[in-house]
Design a protein that fits this description.
Two copies of one chain form a homodimer. With 217 residues, chain A is of the alpha/beta class. Chain A is 56% helix and 10% strand. The longest helix of chain A has 18 residues, at 6-23.
Chain lengths: 217, 217
């Protein structure tokens, strides 16, 4: 067992990740580097080096939005719990998840939709220009894609649901819709993803944004 | 895109997982089946079919403890957020995470240890026979292993930290210590794991325990 200071563990981990990416012959575009490495740091899964898909300038546009204090909306309380509150607070942003709200449950029952869809509908009324970080529900991601087609302009779509039913398809649809409408997006194509991945993408962006204005994490 | 009712998505996912395990030639012991499948459901990562390691009767012993109302202690608020509150409440259990406590931060500073270790020390004073679900910090898992060597008797150790530094080693040590001391343990050997995996293992156990006494999830 290596005796290593807690503050050095992350740096050592990132060095190992960089080295093993090199051994796999993977060269990350500079703009994507921090996001991809943080997702691998969170999952220990190098598949994400190939699965993560970015629209042009997605990272720079997302950082700019977070520096303006954009809110982050998630589709799980687990992703909300994993996002760095100190970094977000320094940037003046906030994080919201409406999944457990009573009025969301009621709206879903009345309309015969999923709670995740109803939660997104509530979110876009309050935070139409938020970063939407979807780590669980393909229906939430598809609803955001539909709303973009109707004119919604989120700061960023993080589309990383995980699973076996409609997940792969929902991410393909979201990527196409975001590309066609000029909306920045970061998606984990394929089956993999999850709340931890959603939080990791958010944190990589928050840390970079905070660093940009000289705030230490 | 398949039109499928939300309540059928999980069942369909589990059928796909069962089929693809078969295609990979993987036959799960009956006792491990629900835990392994739920972790794959949460991660879409079939590596866990081979990574997850169980001490003898770990699942049955854990279910019995949860039916007695055993508490669950986690090392991240993210894992806490991911554990099913309805199932836990039905069983009379509770879930605790001490990572964000001010006295834990102070104890860690004073002793020069990690917050995760200090959080475990606080936890074992209050809940010595809990289920300890460690999804992040190898130092937390190692501290639990040391305390077991000193006589601690947790109901179950879920050891699924994720990462690149001391993670693999911490899980090997924990497995050896649990085996030597007759403590039930479920570990994700290797680098992979995480808060989502910790929550998935807990939920698989909680659902089975609730089902056993005729409570519907």
């Amino acid at each position: 067992m290596k005796h290593i200071l807690p503050e050095d563990i992350e740096q050592t981990s990132m060095s190992i990740i960089a080295q093993e990416l090199g051994e796999r012959g993977i060269v990350l575009p500079k703009e994507h580097d921090a996001v991809v490495k943080r997702v691998i740091h969170t999952t220990a899964d190098f598949d994400f080096a190939r699965n993560l898909s970015f629209t042009p300038n997605a990272v720079d546009l997302a950082k700019a939005a977070l520096l303006r204090g954009a809110a982050i909306v998630t589709d799980t309380n687990m992703a909300r719990a994993g996002i760095s509150k100190p970094a977000l607070t320094k940037l003046g942003g906030q994080i919201r998840c409406f999944m457990a709200d009573e009025d969301v449950a009621r709206a879903a029952r009345e309309k015969g939709t999923t709670r995740a869809m109803a939660a997104m509908e509530k979110a876009v009324r309050q935070y139409p220009n938020a970063v939407f970080a979807i780590g669980n529900a393909p229906t939430a991601l598809l609803r955001i894609a539909e709303l973009i087609e109707e004119g919604l302009q989120p700061a960023l779509v993080i589309g990383v649901p995980v699973g076996f039913v409609n997940v792969v398809e929902s991410k393909k649809v979201a990527l196409m819709v975001c590309q066609a409408n000029g909306i920045p997006a970061i998606l984990a194509m394929g089956r993999k993803g999850g709340s931890g991945v959603a939080a990791a993408v958010c944190n990589a962006l928050l840390y970079q944004a905070a660093e940009e204005i000289g705030l230490v994490n």
